[in-house]
Amino acid sequence: MSRTNDTETAVVVLVLVTVLIWIYQGYVWLSTGMWQSLDLLTALAWVGGPMVTNWVVWPQTWQGLHKLLGWIPISVLPLAFAVAVAAGE
User: Fold this and answer.
1) What distance in Å separates the CA atoms of residue 12 and residue 5, rounded to the nearest whole number?
2) Helix (H, G, I), strand (E, B) or coil at 75
């Protein structure tokens, strides 16, 4: 497999992950009538250890970073990676 095919595959997978996140959020909204916000803090709580999870729930330091991560939707992350991979080709 060539590098171009690998890059194209990575971009397609990352865009697909973004679309799946949007589909999940739409499904939850359609079934409950409430929008479930998925931000980068939510992602950190899912993958982080106890110290990270404690910071996500109750930040004692880096409050500005905490606010910033709470504003950025989780769907931006795979989309940004897709753009970066595509631009790097």
Assistant:
1) 10
2) coil
Q: Is residue 34 left, alpha or beta, with left meaning phi > 0 and alpha meaning psi from -120 to 50?
A: beta
- What are the extents of the domains in the chain? 1-37+75-89, 39-72
Gyration radius of the chain over CA positions: 16
- Distances 83 to 31, 86, 88 between C-alpha atoms, Å: 32, 5, 8
**Per DSSP, which regions of 1-89 are E strands?**
none
For 31, the token pair is: 């079934």
Per-residue pLDDT reduced to its tens digit, 67-88 = 999 999 999 999 999 999 989 8
SS (H, E, C) 42-64: HHHHHHCCHHHHHHHHCCCCCHH
Assigned token pair, 58? 């109750």
Query: What phi, psi does 73 have (nearest 5°)?
Result: -65, 145
